[in-house]
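so my prof wants the structure for this chain in the tokens format not the other one, which i didnt know existed until like an hour ago. anyway here's the sequence
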Amino acid sequence: MTNIFLSIAPIFALIALGFAAKRYFISSDEFWSASDKLVYYLFFPSLLILEIGHADFESVAAGSGLMVAILATSAIAVTVFLYKFILSPDDELFTSVFQGGVRYNSYIFIASSQALFGAEGAALSGLFIASMIIFTNVISVIVLNLYGKGSKKGLGSVAYNTATNPLIVGAVIGVALNLSGIHIEDGAVYGLMRYLGSAATPLSLMSVGAGLLFVLDRNKKIAISYSIFAKLIMLPALAISLISMLNLSGLAASVALLYCAVPCAGNAYILSRQMGGDSVAMASIITWGTVISFLTIPVFMLSHLM
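here's what i got, hopefully its the right format
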């Protein structure tokens, strides 16, 4: 349990650092807006190309676990749409509730996998990332295109914006390199992309902290609470049920549960700001979800491993 707490602590520390930086050192909105664009268009695509390009697609042990992750995430996506139809939040807020319920923090996921299961766990988490990042980004981009502020609602526009989204482009390039056997492993190109990718994590999480607002109206509090509950309670609980129904066990099952238990990704905030979502609510979902996951991840992992 201690290892899980320690793996999450640096993530929240970066968010807190961004919060402090915005209020005491760098108050300019123009700076944080420019930082968001660098992360969105350059740093995260570089990171995705390297991560996915080096992932082990040959691992047969991951298939059953990936099935659990996809089925559970799809079911949560449906429940979030049911929430929209029942409580009718505004469109921008709904996009944040949706992202908060289906996206995952890959950095907490990798660190926790390594802490709990060693090198094999870290390697398997890389395969999950390579497979799930496309799925979660595609459905998130589609929802943001349909419901984000100022977005065009035509199917052609949705398809175009999805296909040209920098995160999707980075993921597709990574898959293409992986399947073709071309690996960026050393040299100047690798060094450049590694430097660019390394900047994605701290800048995106600090941007989350910079955008934090703790005073929310009642409707946003309800939406934020639902999104966090869907991600941190409903999703891992559903994963445990699917693991039991499918009689799955071993490392793949454990990593699948861990995938479903981690909080929402920090780059969901960047996506929200770039595509007209409710970035204030998104920042709160990410931050409070990360805090609460200090408790929920150990509880679910211990219940599965015991």
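also thought this was worth mentioning. The chain has twelve helices and no strands.
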